[in-house]
Structure of Enolase:
Amino acid sequence: MTQVTSVALRRVLDSRGNATVEADVLTDSGGFGRAAAPSGASTGEHEAIELPPGAAIAAAREHALPRLVGEVYAGNQREVDAALHAADGTGNFSEIGANSAVAISMAAAKAGADALGAPLYQHLGGTFRGDSFPVPLGNVVGGGEHAKEATHIQEFLAAPVGAPSVSEAVFANAAVHARISELLDDRGVPAGKGDEGAWAPPISDGEAFEVVGEAVDDVESELGFEIGFGLDMAAAELYDADEGVYVYGDQTRSTAEQVDYVADMVDEYDLVYVEDPLDENDYEGFSALTARVGGGASAPNASGGGPRADRTLICGDDLFVTNVERLQDGIDTEAGNAILIKPNQIGTLSDAFDAIELATENRYETVISHRSGETEDTTIAHLAVATDAGFIKTGTVGGERTAKLNELIRIADDAV
Ligand SMILES: C=C(OP(=O)(O)O)C(=O)O
Ligand SMILES: [Mg+2]
């Protein structure tokens, strides 16, 4: 019923106008799945390897398709993903490309769900899933690698942790995004948008804190539920390893000063979430900050109910790269209390699930995430619901972002 009978691969456009890999998987009973690989700009140095799409497709056709077609069952995700690993043989997908691997892995999951007649989140998570939803983290102002001449900090995020429903949370983030446009207008600041649809104004990080803080407060008062404030600092992009300092234009901060700066911002703006506050190899710095503002390693998992008031989530993206070995190092050193999950960082859904399971067992919050280069693919919305993730980070506006947000609304409405 779910035996894979064909896999087709092609180049399609992503949201930046770059080529990416799309996969179609078909099963013997007619089950069909289509998925496309996203692509990062501020990628972690320990991520699985993305190849140029043409090369990834050629290599996957040569090495992976013979191990998939007529050989594996799309309903058995572990088997599909094991075949991808065997075809690649390198441990980091440098032979067939993590972009080919993740597109095939996600397309197979969708084909399996289709053949079985279940929504994807239910196929991945089981019949008891679908009644709790992640809090959407909405990127509302940004810069770094996602927009030139804007803020040094990559993402200023709205986190509607008190929203009564996922739909109200999604609309709250859109309202914060709209309010920021008005506030920037009042200040006479012109703003285009960055890669993820966040405003990319030519203002300092300090001004961005003020504007986002005000917008979050305004929308919170208007809607009557709590909206938190978060950041993705993408600090590996700010870090000068030779000098051992974080560079913010003409200002620099040592690691100790960076920890102080983040802790001060947590206090001043009541931050509920800070991603990658330190360099991607600095477990020690993550531990120091987590001990200071993260509520301790034994804090209960915030899943479903938003973060605990006394616990800021310190999330590893480039630090952990969805990799169980790097996450285990973090658990051992109490570095962070949350992990960002990007399936393309590790190459398959099975590997992403392993990271989610290890995180959950160790009381790390899970945040399922898009990339800055995206497509209309909605797999991460289903993955977040299937795994009962506390959060999903998938932007606020723009078709490739709203594709995921609208899918969450449909899942909540039993309309998938
Ligand atoms: C989504 C992000 O950006 P990118 O995809 O460029 O890594 C991120 O850093 O969390
Ligand atoms: Mg990040």
